[in-house]
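Hi V.,

You were right to ask for the full record rather than a summary. Here it is.
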Amino acid sequence: MSRVKFNVNTEYAYLQNFKILQNTFTKHQIERPIPVESLVKCKMQDNLEFLQWSKRYWDQYFPGGDYDALARRKASGAPANSASAPRAAAAVAPAAPRAVASNTAAPRTRTPQGGASTAALTQENASLKETVQGLERERDFYFSKLRDIELLIQQAMDQDPELEKEEGSLLKQIQTILYSTEEGFEIPAEAEGDGAEEETF
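Predicted structure:
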């Protein structure tokens, strides 16, 4: 931490800090390459991905306890970045010194917070999942019935081509109902193609 430069705003200083981070990763045998070039460009997506990975790594390997970032920065001789920093540092109790965590520490387990509200939400979530599964089963059931009817009509029309020519026949009316759409319904773009790919059931 003593070599890290806080409050930097030049690309050269960014590179120096990332080199320190990369060396630390190598020292602790963390096999994660740091995309320095993309991080230095300060693009949100690249930085967000790296921060998400950092957070996941922290959650997995940090052994627990208090971590006072401001005290660690002061110990490294970093300048305070604003007038609010001394007040924030005074509000935080100083952390007891402890050994630096290595990547071989036991994973930290999270305890759910919230008690009754979490249990209620979990129960509601389970109930909604059951409802969705029931609706999907029902949808599949009725779809298979409609598909069977469609196949029977196609077989009947293949056997007797005259049925297709009759406009008022029962089979023609059923086929019209099967292929009708509701107002506002749009056929998906991939279904509007030339019909080269037939869907199989």
